[in-house]
Specification:
DUF4236, DUF4236 domain-containing protein, globular, 6-stranded antiparallel β-sheet, mainly beta, 63 residues
Length: 63
């Protein structure tokens, strides 16, 4: 059994969050329905939640 840590700190309510976990940190910009996340390695994830339980997610890496 392993333990994991995750903490979300709100920098600007409903807009900007700092995510801290046992694996590192990341920034999230946007709302629950559409947001962009950038981690400490420069990887970016874009996600959009659609009505009816559907979602779209795209990962991109810095070159």
């Amino acid at each position: 059994m392993s333990f994991h840590y995750h903490k979300r700190i709100t920098v600007i309510p409903k807009v900007l969050h700092l995510n801290i976990s046992s694996r590192g940190w990341s920034w999230t910009l946007g709302s629950r329905h559409a947001h962009i996340t950038r981690d400490r390695h420069g990887r970016r994830t874009t996600a959009v939640r659609l009505p009816g339980g559907f979602s779209w997610r795209r990962h991109s890496h810095r070159r």
